[in-house]
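User: Here's a protein and a ligand (flavin-adenine dinucleotide). What would the complex look like?
Assistant: Let me lay out the input and then the predicted complex.
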Amino acid sequence: MRPMQEPSFWLSRLGPRLARPAVSADVDVDVCVLGAGYTGLWTAYYLAKADPSVRVAVVERERVGFGASGRNGGWASAKIAGIDRLLADPATRPGAAATYREMIATLGEMERVIVAEGIDCGWTIGGSVVAATRPSQVERLEESVAAEHAAGFDDTDLRWMEPDEARRVISTSRLHGATFTPHCAAVDPARLVAGLAEAAQRAGVTIYEQTPGTPVPGGIRTAGGRVMAPVVVEAVEAYRTSLPGRRRDIIPVYSLMVVTEPLPATVWDEIGLARRETFSDGRHLIIYGQRTDDDRIAFGGRGAPYHYRSAVEPGFDFDEGTSAFLRQTLVDLFPVLGGVRFEGPWGGPLAIARDWQPSILFDGATAVVGGYVGQGVALANLAGRTVRDLVLHRDTDLVRLPWVGHRSRRWEPEPLRWVGVNLARRLTESLDRAEDAGRRPRIRQAIFDRLPVG
Ligand SMILES: Cc1cc2nc3c(=O)[nH]c(=O)nc-3n(C[C@H](O)[C@H](O)[C@H](O)COP(=O)(O)OP(=O)(O)OC[C@H]3O[C@@H](n4cnc5c(N)ncnc54)[C@H](O)[C@@H]3O)c2cc1C
């Protein structure tokens, strides 16, 4: 398969979009946001809504939604990166539980804005199902339910389904049970980010496109002029490594996707997913799928190589080995899909901090936000409201969540980083191969949870 012209299938379906102007002169604002993905746009939106007198500009290097926000799998999940580990540890449990509860509420908040702003993005809170497609996955998935329940959550948040019940939700070729959580929505990511940009503009935000920016004291420097602002919000996620002083804050890791043609009702009768539940299985290498609002399956996974010195280039959005793996895996899960036509492939980088935890750092002048791993669709909304409160000096529950002010250590220098990350990727693949062959590889889950590919 050949890579797409547009950065993603989702963006290609938006059709022609009016270009917004680039910065062409010096500008003075109160808050300048770098990056027009979900993080930047939610932040700008909530600031403008909270106080219309605050002048907010968003400066985007390419187009709105060019980054992961226009390319992702469209899972808006209450689960954030690393939360299972933080819920399991008594020392971090209270903060993790508070964060998880805020994330559950975040789905309702996103729905409120989507409805209020008339954003047509195929949003449905149908929950999420993780199938055990190998016997070895059962124990891991049951443990995830037990850990969540031990942290004060219950079956209404995450529950185990025996095979008969699971099959009524998702009918994979091999099914040994599944977990189900109602706390996840499916969404067309590009329609969400495009609609959000329009909502932000209606609220008074100015968006500049085709404008690479560099943070400097007192604002942002661009080729067309300076955007002077007492507060700068860096919301560039995987592109953070290109900003001054940030090279080793996160690593960009690629996730890739494909999408089927629209599938007829007879196929859906066999597969299930009647409420558009997002789906995955319990293997080590992350895979994720959603039934789109026009009855396709959009399906993605990690496993593409990490590139030396954290390089991010358009050529890396495509990896034939990974896209073949995705097509084969989807047909393996649902044999009824044998022979269907696929579109795509596409992909993009996401950001992982050394300790796998997202964070918001704010020193009164600069906010640095992100490190969502592959779970930023809903978390970026919480980030936007939290940065709003920090910038407006509001003392709310949000600014006291543990990810605010959380600082991960930096990644190792090269070539250590390249060797370590790619070795971890290989290890993940070999764990899944071993389980496929009926072996039980011996690696402690706590170690596995820290590998940058799972
Ligand atoms: C293929 C894929 C699948 C994913 N699937 C899911 C999923 O199903 N669910 C989920 O929760 N998460 C998923 N993610 C992650 C999720 O998409 C991201 O966490 C989220 O979109 C991050 O939003 P953001 O606004 O922080 O960053 P981005 O959307 O990446 O936006 C950053 C923006 O900054 C701009 N920029 C960069 N440098 C500069 C500069 N110097 N000057 C100006 N602008 C700049 C970029 O052009 C970009 O538009 C996935 C990611 C990928 C790549």
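Summary: DSSP finds twelve helices and 20 strands in the chain.
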